[in-house]
Amino acid sequence: MSARRTLARRCAVAVMATPDGRYLMQLRDPDPAILLPDHWACFGGSIEPGESAEAALHRELREELDYRAADARFFIELTIDLPFAPPRTDLMIFFAVPILPADVDRMVQREGAGRRLFTPEELAAETRVAPWDLAAVLMHARRDVLFAARRG
Q1: Residue 137, Cβ neighbours under 10 Å: how many?
Q2: Distance in angstroms (rounded) separating the CA atoms of residues 127 and 133
Q3: Spans of all domains in the chain
Q4: Assign residue 15 a region: left if phi > 0, alpha if psi is -120 to 50, beta otherwise?
Q5: Predicted pLDDT at 3
Q6: How many helices (H) and strands (E) does the chain have?
Q7: How many CA atoms lie within 13 A of 42 on its CB side?
Q8: What was the pLDDT predicted at 150?
Q9: Nearest residue to 93 (alpha-carbon basis) of 126, 121, 62, 51
Q10: Where are the alpha helices (DSSP H) in the chain?
């Protein structure tokens, strides 16, 4: 087991889901200087010093999509140890953000190379998808089974 690493980055991330179970994903720019270029990922970004995760989420959605989420609820938090040189640990705080297809039509994307609604199965079949975002989407899609209350 490796020693605990210093937290490099805290991120607020939106798991944006339509009532029919599709998830809005961003196609990241093809710029080789960014993490996972040309991959599908959730919308979101770094939490600024002194900013709450929820405030960061709302700021990122306004900056990236000109979208003001009416509802954003904490969903899950993942700590990811990335095998970079030097290694780095990121904290990903995912929020469930319900959206309607009409919301997607009104969004103005200001970051990334595109956006698309995916079913969980379609997203899992993609060869270029951020693995932590895929995990969060799949957990959200199966939340009723995965996180059902224990019965005594």
Answers
A1: 25
A2: 13
A3: 7-146
A4: beta
A5: 57
A6: 5, 7
A7: 29
A8: 59
A9: 51
A10: 53-65, 101-106, 120-125, 131-141, 143-146
Q: In which element (H, E) is residue 8 found?
A: strand 7-17
Residue type, position 98, single letter: P
State residue 67's pLDDT score: 98
pLDDT at 6: 79
- Kindly give the parts of the chain with pLDDT less than 70: 1-5, 150-152
Please name the CATH architecture into which domain 7-146 falls.
Alpha-Beta Complex (3.90)
- Which of these, 109, 101, 80, lies nearest to 22 by C-alpha position? 101
* pLDDT tens-digit readout, 126-145: 999 999 999 999 999 999 99
